[in-house]
From TrEMBL:
Spans through the membrane: 12-32, 44-61, 67-86
Xref: InterPro entries: DUF3817_TM
Record keywords: Cell membrane, Membrane, Transmembrane, Transmembrane helix
Principal location listed in the UniProt entry: membrane
Subcellular location per the Swiss-Prot or TrEMBL entry: Cell membrane
Residues covered by the DUF3817 domain: 5-91
Membrane topology reported for the UniProt record: Multi-pass membrane protein
Protein name: DUF3817 domain-containing protein
Length: 104
């Protein structure tokens, strides 16, 4: 599970940062009429979010998460700042489950 946790953590932070940049780009686009940054940021965030979904699926399958929990983690990349909170909770959950799995 640790091998799947690292890509998830990296992508959670990257997607979270890109989402914040995308929010700023949307303010520039719709508030100030400058669409340049959003035209660049939106596709990058979309591609990184797809990688984030794959990382969540990989970790979720290895950790044997329920589908509702996995979907909740996936939605973490759609709300600003939520991916940082979700990443911390998932990391704690996986690390606390690792010793239990090693004993079994």
């Amino acid at each position: 599970m640790e091998s799947a946790l690292k890509p998830f953590r990296v992508l959670a932070y990257v997607v979270g940062c890109m989402l914040l940049i995308l929010c700023a780009a949307m303010v520039l686009r719709y508030g100030f009429g400058n669409p340049t940054l959003s035209k660049i940021t939106a596709p990058i965030h979309g591609g990184l979010y797809m990688l984030y979904l794959v990382a969540v699926m990989n970790l979720g399958m290895k950790a044997r998460w329920s589908w509702p929990y996995m979907l909740g983690v996936m939605l973490g990349g759609t709300v600003p700042f939520l991916s940082f909170f979700i990443e911390r909770k998932v990391t704690e959950r996986v690390q606390s489950a690792a010793p239990a799995a090693a004993e079994a």
